[in-house]
Amino acid sequence: MNILLLGYGKMGKAIEQIALERGHQIAARVDAHNRADLETIPADAVDVVIEFSAPESAVDNIKSCLQRGWPVVCGTTGWLSHRTEIEQLCQEKEGAFFYASNYSIGVNLFFRLNKTLARFMRNYPSYHVSMTEIHHTEKKDAPSGTAITLAEGVLEGLPNKQGWVTKEAGDDKGSRINSTDAVEIESLREGTVPGTHTVRYDSEVDRIEITHIAHSRQGFALGAVIAAEWLIGRQGVFGMDDLLGSIE
Ligand SMILES: NC(=O)C1=CN([C@@H]2O[C@H](COP(=O)(O)OP(=O)(O)OC[C@H]3O[C@@H](n4cnc5c(N)ncnc54)[C@H](O)[C@@H]3O)[C@@H](O)[C@H]2O)C=CC1
Ligand SMILES: O=C(O)C1=N[C@H](C(=O)O)C[C@H](O)C1
Fold it and tell me: Which residue's CA is minimally distant from atom 25 of ligand 1?
């Protein structure tokens, strides 16, 4: 397939390498400096777009591609307040849009483990749930998209919790509630860490915790290419549960 890489930074380059290894072609590489080129690329030169750019550019990028009739696989985080708008545009254009806060298969297994653990903990209110995510110092958004998905999974299993809050300031980005009623998320930025997520349940006497550690960006990149292969020929709005469900 002919892939348009929209955003050619750390992830764009990792995706290019895996796409070439899997026998695909790169139709174009569009980054901030040549963003205007997007409008000049012939529509039939592109089978699918893989968009990994920045929180402030993702929405415009996705809209431009859906307007051109291109299927879009998006991994950019930090723009989800516009999700409904994008999903409506996709339906209106009869297009195809795939989003995941994390394309790694391992993280998606971890998402399922997290939901199961949260259901187990429902009857043990003496445990306080909190999360920590660690990423490289270039990361623009906090908490990470993955941490937000994990928090949503915890909230599904623990109906008494009322939202998530960022730990440092208590100035939540999810909902304005007391942190004892909420899932606390701590965001740390260290060196070149690709992505580490921990969910923990602490009581007076012990702690239960689960951690996913990405050793590199390879897992994210491979998942994004597999999602692009899967998306071609489909119409609608999709996520990793659709993809994994279809290959289980
Ligand atoms: N869903 C997932 O599995 C993963 C998501 N991410 C997310 O992907 C995004 C990109 O991550 P990285 O590649 O590490 O960042 P990066 O900063 O290395 O690369 C982003 C690139 O986008 C470019 N860019 C900025 N504005 C643009 C525009 N208007 N059009 C096209 N390109 C533009 C930048 O110049 C830069 O080269 C982030 O939001 C990150 O959180 C990262 C890893 C995995
Ligand atoms: O910015 C990153 O690097 C990553 N971003 C994603 C997120 O916000 O969850 C996924 C991964 O953790 C790496």
Answer: 32
The domain segmentation of the chain, as residue ranges, is 2-103+218-247, 105-213
Token pair for 141: 């958004």
Would you place residue 146 in the very low, low, confident or very high pLDDT band (cuts 50, 70, 90)? very high
The arrangement of secondary structure in 2-103+218-247, i.e. its CATH architecture, is 3-Layer(aba) Sandwich (3.40)
Domain 105-213: CATH architecture, name and number where available: 2-Layer Sandwich (3.30)
- Closest to 51 (Cα-Cα) out of 42, 33, 64, 67: 64
The ligand placed nearest to the CA atom of residue 74 is: 1
DSSP string, 132-197: EEEE-TT--SSS-HHHHHHHHHHHHH-TT---EEETTT---SS----GGGSEEEEEEE-TT---EE
- 139 labelled catalytic: yes
Q: Is the predicted pLDDT of residue 6 greater than 80, yes or no?
A: yes
Decide if 135 is catalytic.
Answer: yes
pLDDT tens track for 8-23? 999 999 999 999 999 9
Give ipTM to 2 decimals.
Answer: 0.99
pTM score, whole prediction? 0.95
Determine which helix (DSSP H) or strand (DSSP E) holds 237, and give its type and residue range: strand 236-238
In this predicted structure, what is the pLDDT of residue 247?
Answer: 64
Q: What integer best gives the mean pLDDT of the chain? A: 94
Residue 127 tokens, joined: 């445990």
Residue 111: CB within 6 Å of ligand 1?
Answer: no
User: What mean pLDDT is predicted for residues 169-175?
Assistant: 47
User: What does 20-79 look like in DSSP terms, one character per residue?
Assistant: HHTT-EEEEEE-GGGGGGGGGS-GGG-SEEEE---TTTHHHHHHHHHHTT--EEE---S-
144 CA → ligand 2 middle, Å: 6
